Amino acid sequence: MPTLDERFRDGPPTREPADAHAWLSAEERRFILWGLKERWSAIRMGRALGINEATVRRFRKKFWEDPRLLLELGLYEMVGSARTPEYRCLVCGERALGRLAMERHVLRHYLEEEAVMAALPEVTDNSARQRGEGQESGEKKPQRKHRVPRRQRRH
């Protein structure tokens, strides 16, 4: 998938006149996030999309109140999973190991560190850690203890 810069290089998504009062589509929401990254004003984003600037401000307020909404917009993709899943950020193109590490990375584009950690706290659950969800890039998985075969345990 293309990054946001590649996706909106030729301009914003367009609406049909009949859809002028419809809900924001996922593509329009991604465009607003791209506009925020490019430091566009709400007025400029609204004009580009053909919507009211208040709609842009409401969406921005909504994701600041619940940052997990950003994660529903498909701002990252899986690119490999040899041992630990590897993901690519569609905002900047960077890669990270583990879904949770990538979700934190995506949120850091738009939120302060305290808000990111409040939305996605550290994983302390061992089963989640083994699935690679609590791993930052470079962090090692907990090693399993060596299991002695049943025949050798009998005395």
Task: Please bin the fraction of helical residues.
Answer: 40-55%
**How many DSSP helices?**
9
Mean pLDDT: 80
For the record, the count of structural domains works out to: 2
Number of strands: 3
Radius of gyration: 21 Å
What low-confidence regions span 5 or more consecutive residues with pLDDT below 50? 124-131, 133-148
What spatial form do the alpha-carbon principal axes imply?
globular
Order of helices and strands: HHHHHEEEHHHH
* Beta strand %: 5-15%
How far apart lie the N and C ends? Answer: 59 Å
Which helices and strands occur, and which strands form pairs?
Elements: H1 4-7, H2 26-37, H3 42-49, H4 53-65, H5 68-71, E1 76-80, E2 86-89, E3 95-97, H6 99-108, H7 113-119, H8 126-130, H9 150-153
Antiparallel strand pairs: 1-2, 2-3
Helix pairs in contact: 3-4
Question: Can you summarize this structure?
Answer:
This protein is mainly α.
Overview of this protein structure:
The termini are far apart. This protein has 155 residues and is mainly α. A three-stranded antiparallel β-sheet has the order 1-2-3, with helices on one face. α3 crosses α4 (53-65). It has two domains: 4-65; 76-123, no CATH class. The model is unreliable at 124-131 and 133-148 (pLDDT under 50). It has nine helices and three strands. A hairpin with a 5-residue loop joins β2 (86-89) and β3 (95-97).
